[in-house]
Amino acid sequence: MLSHYHAVRVLGASAFDAEIILTHEKTHELIRERGEEDWASEFARMPRLAKDADSVPGLTWPTQTFADRTTIDLGGDRGELVLQYFGRGHTEGDIVAWLPKQRILFAGDLVEAQAALYTGDAFHHDWSGATLDGVKALGAEMLVGGRGAVSRGREEVDAAIEQTRGFLDVMIREVGAVHGRGGTLKEAFEATHAALVDDYGHWPIFEHCLPFDVSRLWDEFSGIERPVIWTAERDREVWDQLQG
Ligand SMILES: [Zn+2]
Question: What mean pLDDT comes out for the span 160-187?
Answer without folding.
Answer: 97
